[in-house]
Amino acid sequence: MPGSRWRRLLLRPWQKEALQALFQQNRYPGITTRERLARELDIPESRIQVWFQNERTRQLRQSRLASANSQGEGPSCGQEQPPAWTPGSRWRRLLLRPWQKEALQALFQQNRYPGITTRERLARELDIPESRIQVWFQNERTRQLRQSRLASANSQGEGPSCGQEQPPEDRRKRTAISPSQTSLLLQAFEKNPFPSISTREQLARLTGLPECRIQVWFQNRRARHPGQSRSGSANDRAEEPPGPLEAPLSEEDFQALLAMLHDSTWPHA
């Protein structure tokens, strides 16, 4: 009945066994799988989705309780256990277990800009929301960049003395681009003045610059050279065209840019 849709779902034993069997194989079933289950078990698909969400929450709560008890951190008798993570508490600080942090660090060494598919796979394997994994990678990139800048300043003797407050860093100095990096960006700009996000991420890995900095560089370049980036249409005055003027960098173009790393113009360590 429409008025009783929020009534608790009472499962029959064989229905619960079927859901439990699928949960052991796949904790995040897609809409196709849920619809098939709905037809086979005679349960609304929306209730199946809620059942899997509740089951994942219950499993996570049990694993946290078992981990706390094994470490001697379980709540004393009479003390109430804090509630488990819920969507309403998404801004609560994410506490990673050692094995979860090691897995994220290992992937970060291979790919600092994982796509949505990779993040969703990690979310299923590590039992962490995909949005929190995205935030973790953003914070890790910021932390690595801050450490590299601090190490560079200390190696050049520009670090603040003990007890002195460090002056605010100049944004232009902080985002300065070397001539070799500019040469690579100019090569990409000649091919496509309006690069897509995938092309900018490839350039970020190639040049070592943040993707947002590359996006700003292309915007400034188009503003300084409007004739070079204009497609020829008189109505094309928007900052971004309705679609990409050219396809993203192909694998051959990306390998050609990568080969420039070995050119004599690229600074060697």
Describe the protein's architecture and organization.
Helix content is 58%, strand content 0%. It is mainly α and 269 residues long. Helix 2 (31-41) packs across helix 3 (45-70) and helix 5 (116-126) crosses helix 6.
Which percent range fits the helix content? 55-70%
Number of strands: 0
Can you write the helix and strand succession as a string? Answer: HHHHHHHHHHHH
Question: Radius of gyration, rounded?
Answer: 26 Å
Task: Compute the separation of the termini in Å.
Answer: 72 Å
Which structural category do the helix and sheet elements fall into?
mainly alpha
Mean pLDDT: 75
Strand content: under 5%
Which sheet architecture does the biggest sheet show? none
Shape: elongated
Low-confidence stretches: 74-90, 169-173, 232-246
DSSP helical segment count? 12
Quickly list its features.
269 residues; mainly alpha; 12 helices; elongated
Summarize the structure.
58% of the residues lie in helices and 0% in strands.
Please describe the topology of this protein.
Blueprint: H1 13-25, H2 31-41, H3 45-70, H4 98-110, H5 116-126, H6 130-155, H7 171-174, H8 179-191, H9 197-207, H10 211-224, H11 226-229, H12 251-259
Helix pairs in contact: 2-3, 5-6, 9-10
